[in-house]
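subagent[fold] <- orchestrator: predict structure for attached chain, return tokens only, no commentary.
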Amino acid sequence: MHEVSFEEALAKIAVRDLRYQPEAYLFVREALDHTQKIVAKDARGRIRHVTGQELLAGIRDFALQQFGPMTKMVLEEWGVRCCSDFGEIVFNMIEVKWLAKTDKDTRTDFQAGYDFDEAFRQPFLPKGKQTVQAPEAKP
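subagent[fold] -> orchestrator:
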């Protein structure tokens, strides 16, 4: 079977969906590799399937390592503004056979992710500027 190259996959995706920059697809692929190295080895050391939630955690970790405080800005530049965008990217890659899925995998796996401000901005704010629940106003 012919393995789909990055360029072939992007060309096929671009025909149907131009919401995300090519860098976003490459980043998700690299984040998947990162995630597999960390969480996706079974007892025999073989790589196993990664769930949507595991991939989201791996994406967050990898993004913060790669881009630090610039993470949110970089992702937004690529058209990625929430976790469901990662799901759209993953499923675009599945549709062109650049990634594989199981019968249990769905786009909704990426909807219950994290808030981008909390995940990518909060870790870099000074302690006094981090979001704190305001006390309720007394009548």
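orchestrator: received. Logging for downstream: Residues 22-39 form the longest helix (18 residues). The CA atoms of residues 84 and 100 lie 18 Å apart.
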